[in-house]
Specification:
The complex is a heterodimer of chains A (about 500) and B (about 130). Chain A has about 500 residues and is of the alpha/beta class. Chain A is built from 16 helices and 18 strands. In chain A, the strands form 4 sheets. Chain A has an 8-stranded mixed beta sheet with strand order 8-14-13-15-16-12-17-18, sandwiched between helices. The longest helix of chain A is centred in the C-terminal third of the chain and has 21 residues, at about 490-510. The chains are: A alpha/beta (about 500), B alpha+beta (about 130).
Chain lengths: ~500, ~130
């Protein structure tokens, strides 16, 4: 391309440029503080309409226009939150209504990218150009469009897939104190979707940028960024961005759901989301209620989580599965936000600090964790082995207190305690090591049928690792059979028994 | 229930409509008394601005702020008044001419919260946005 060509091209554009003028509705900023502006005028503004702020010294703000969202429509003035750096805005600045409801760009090109809640790339891999926009706030799919949960989301975590199964379209809460591995479960689930058809969206709300960078690094290392979108509202971003982040992430997911695809979306975490909304509401002078949250805090989360759905065939059959995360303070699940979200979701995964420090990781409290709809999505093979597993664990918990009496116990009780110890051992799993479902079925089958009873408790971990290696290398056909049949037929059971026995022989000889 | 400034302004307009000067004076002092009795004297400036809004609306007066680079000529003023009268169906136009060097040229007309921006600065900005695209 030479110079003359560029100049010619510019000339042509200049000649064709039409200066059109039309009347527009404007308002004036009368009050501004902490990311929320009061604007007088703007008589035709709609709720959640985008408003364009025109700072008096436009050159300072750069080329990108600054947008706000109308939240309060009062007589004579409009309360709006500002999406972005609000330092440049002064009292008396002009505000223009755009006539557009707040929406974000959506599309296939978003996959693999890190974006802010407005859909702008922040990973330095170039601008995201999209023709399609979805509104950030949308009413959830209605009754006639929905279908029951019947296909599982494989988290790759033994304890969850076996006892607290998650189905596509389900909303499963991950709840626990800080530092109990809540994010780890979500990230493992995303990593486990590698090579599968599920598209993952990780929404970081008010998270430390360092944590987000680490998560991004892990996902890239495990090749999981190829099917993942990360939506980031960092701790230093204005709370308006934290507030819209989950809705924006959900809108990006809805695009894929409408195309008939399955989406997994992680909201990490909704406590911070509630804080952001509380801040905005209080600055807007909405009356505070319990714990100073505004009156519509329940609706804030219910309308978000209700957008997770499984559509029936007439509507494309897509789904959005949500894994909201809630951080509790000192294990208090009866605080305001945790109880709200527990009541909205279809079950919860409850993580405990005590278990975490005992070395049981994931630190799952099996008694308090439930999945209200997931069992109908479990594969038959898993359902069969998991039933016995749950029973073993429940009995173990009851007898655990007696474990210290050791020799004074009768044979049956002692056996149950020993089995329970091994069950706890098997359910431990390292981070970033999701396990395919056929391996899970094989090890749980071995466990509940007593094949591990003669292995020392501290050796269970190595035994299991070697078992998986052996199964993968020498008994591939059995694993394939489980994966294909998804059921414990006589053929599968026979194959499994034979494989486990053969492994035990090999293992003993190797010792 | 508290009475809003809009309600005061409306009733003030109705009470003073087609009245003589002495009657108006009395109505105004009554209004002050009512405000005082209701402990709402601080609303007075709001009532005044609302009243002028209502007055303008009822009497068909449109106030327009016209921003230009140089002071408006008489012929231009006339043309603008005709244009605005037609546009808003008003009987009378009150033009408020503001001089701003920064707009470089052209004209910005603001009526209420409606804005007609035909300034050179705005056109240049649009051109810039067009080029960026």
């Amino acid at each position: 391309m030479n110079k003359d060509y560029i100049i010619d091209e510019l000339k042509k554009q200049l000649e064709n440029f039409q200066a059109t003028t039309q009347t527009e509705k404007v308002g004036t900023v009368t009050e501004i503080g902490d990311g929320v502006a009061k604007i007088s005028g703007l008589s035709d503004a709609m709720v959640s309409e985008m408003l364009e702020f025109l700072p008096a010294e436009a050159s300072k703000a750069g080329p990108a226009p600054l947008y706000g969202v109308a939240l309060n429509l009062e007589e004579g003035n409009v309360g709006a939150m500002i999406l972005g750096a609000y330092e440049g805005i002064k009292e008396g600045d002009t505000v223009k209504s755009t006539g557009k409801i707040l929406s974000v760009p959506v599309g296939d090109m978003m996959v693999g990218r890190v974006v802010n809640p407005l859909g702008e790339a922040i990973d330095g891999k170039g601008e995201i150009k999209s023709e399609t926009f979805y509104p950030v706030e949308k009413i959830a799919p209605g009754v006639i469009t929905r279908k029951g949960v019947s296909v599982p989301v494989q988290t790759g975590i033994k304890a969850i897939d076996a006892m607290i199964p998650v189905g596509r379209g389900q909303r499963e809460l991950i709840i626990g104190d800080r530092q109990t591995g809540k994010t780890a479960i979500a990230i493992d689930t995303i990593i486990n979707q590698k090579g599968k058809e599920l598209i993952c969206i990780y929404v970081a709300i008010g998270q430390k940028e360092s944590k987000i960078a680490r998560i991004m690094g892990e996902l890239e290392k495990h090749g999981a960024m190829e099917h993942t979108i990360i939506v980031v509202a960092g701790a230093s971003d204005p709370s308006a961005l934290s507030f819209i982040a989950p809705y924006a992430g959900c809108a990006m997911g809805e695009y894929f759901m409408d195309k008939g695809k399955d989406v997994l979306i992680v909201y990490d975490d909704l406590s911070k989301h509630a804080w952001a909304y509380r801040q905005i509401s209080l600055i807007l002078r909405r009356p505070p209620g319990r714990e100073a949250y505004p009156g519509d805090i329940f609706y804030l989360h219910s309308r978000l989580l209700e957008r997770s759905a499984r559509l029936n065939e007439n509507y494309g059959g897509g789904s959005i599965t949500a894994l909201p995360v809630i951080e509790t303070q000192a294990g208090d699940v009866s605080a305001y936000i945790p109880t709200n979200v527990i009541s909205i979701t279809d079950g919860q995964i409850y993580l405990e600090t005590d278990l975490f420090y005992k070395g049981i990781r994931p630190a799952l409290n099996v008694g308090l964790s439930v999945s209200r709809v997931g069992s109908s999505a479990q594969t038959k093979a898993m359902k069969k082995v998991a039933g016995k597993l749950r029973l073993d664990l429940a009995q173990f918990r009851e007898l655990e207190a007696f474990a210290q009496f050791g020799s004074d116990l009768d044979e049956a009780t002692r056996k149950q305690i020993e089995r329970g110890k091994r069950t706890v051992e098997v359910l431990k799993q390292d981070q970033y090591e999701p396990m395919p479902v056929e391996h899970q079925v094989a090890i749980i089958y071995a466990l509940i049928n007593g094949f591990l009873d003669d292995v020392a408790v501290e050796k269970v971990k190595t035994w299991e690792n070697d078992f998986h290696k052996y199964m993968k290398s020498s008994q591939k056909e059995v694993l394939d059979l489980i994966a294909e049949k998804k059921e414990l037929t006589d053929e599968v059971v026979a194959g499994l028994e034979k494989a486990i026995k053969e492994f035990k022989e090999v293992y003993q000889n190797g010792q | 229930m508290k009475i809003t400034s809009t309600q005061y302004a409306k009733s003030l307009y109705e009470a003073t409509k087609d009245k003589s000067q002495s009657e108006i004076d009395e109505v105004i002092s009554n209004l002050i008394n009512v405000l005082k009795k209701n402990n709402q004297l601080k609303l007075i400036s709001n009532v005044i601005s609302k009243f002028s809004e209502i007055w303008n609306k009822e009497e068909g007066i449109v106030e327009a702020v016209v921003t230009t680079r140089y002071k408006l000529q008489d012929t231009m003023t006339k043309q603008l008044e005709d244009f605005l009268k037609e546009k808003y169906g008003a009987k009378e136009i009150v033009l408020n001419n503001k001089i701003d060097q920064k707009i470089k040229g052209g004209i910005i007309i603001k009526v209420g919260d409606e804005l007609l921006d035909a300034s050179i600065v705005r056109r240049l900005k649009n051109l810039k946005l067009n080029f960026i695209k």
